[in-house]
Write a structure and sequence with these properties.
two-stranded antiparallel ribbon, 133 residues, two-stranded parallel ribbon, mainly alpha
Length: 133
């Protein structure tokens, strides 16, 4: 059997990691204090513990599994020793069963760039407007 294309493996990992990041965001949202800080001191650009922790989980997990891909997080947090505790290594089996488009089947890991924005709509999130997040 042929090896699973790297693009499908990255997608499969991303689905598993996104599920974990979603749990992180929900757990933090249940707290009274979501750890809001203002990026660059701008009141219209908040960041929360949910943003930071979910991004650290996603970035650390993808870097662990795909060390040759370029993984870029919106919050540009770098990495920390404790990020190892957030690493997800599972794959979504349903994604792995999918057919990779022929023109993408031979993409190499080092050719991939993954942009991570774990919580789009942070202003709405901090205001409790869940339907907009």
């Amino acid at each position: 059997a042929a090896a699973t294309p790297v693009l499908l493996r990255v997608l499969s990992s991303s689905v598993s990691v996104a599920k974990r990041a979603g749990h992180i965001i929900r757990d933090i949202s249940a707290r009274k204090d979501v750890g809001i800080v203002l990026k660059g001191g701008r009141s219209d650009d908040p960041q929360t513990d949910a943003d930071r922790t979910a991004e650290r989980c996603i970035v650390a997990s993808l870097r662990h599994q795909f060390p040759h891909a370029k993984i870029i997080g919106e919050e540009n947090l770098g990495s920390a020793e404790e990020d190892k505790l957030l690493v997800v290594t599972s794959q979504d089996e349903a994604v792995l069963q999918q057919q990779c488009p022929a023109n993408l089947a031979n993409v190499k890991e080092e050719e991939l760039v993954v942009w991570v924005d774990p919580l789009d709509g942070t202003s709405e999130f901090t205001a409790g407007y869940w339907e907009n997040v």
